[in-house]
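Render this sequence as a predicted structure.
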Amino acid sequence: MTKQELDLPPKASPDVIAQRNALADQVCHALARAGIPVHRMVLGGESEDRPGAEVHLDPLADGGVLVEWNTGAELTAAALNIPPGELDPSNLPYAIRHYETVHTCMRAALLGILASARFQVEEADGHTYGSAVHVKGFMP
């Protein structure tokens, strides 16, 4: 058996990671000032699954600062603990529809709040980051 090398994307330099950490701190401050519960995830750490905005870094060269919304445990469990055999894509259960609506609305709210606070933001790539907000920079 031969060992195949994976073509992994390049990681960001330590300087870029330091800049992203500073930007993530600014994002947390802006969201907290707006009254949004916010949690900072440590690079490489596990999600805390606490409700509110979760700010973390993607360490890849083309990554950045990401903000994701975490719903409360009760809604998350109701939406994600439905047995796969019971899912009809044409008629999803209420819990899943509500969960998706909350994430869609909160992404729009986070985009608006952060843009108003002078951050350069956009919807993150859905295939890679789901419903996250990508923070690209700050306009002083």
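Summary. Strands lie at 38-40, 52-57, 65-70, 119-123, 133-138. Residues 94-116 form the longest helix (23 residues).
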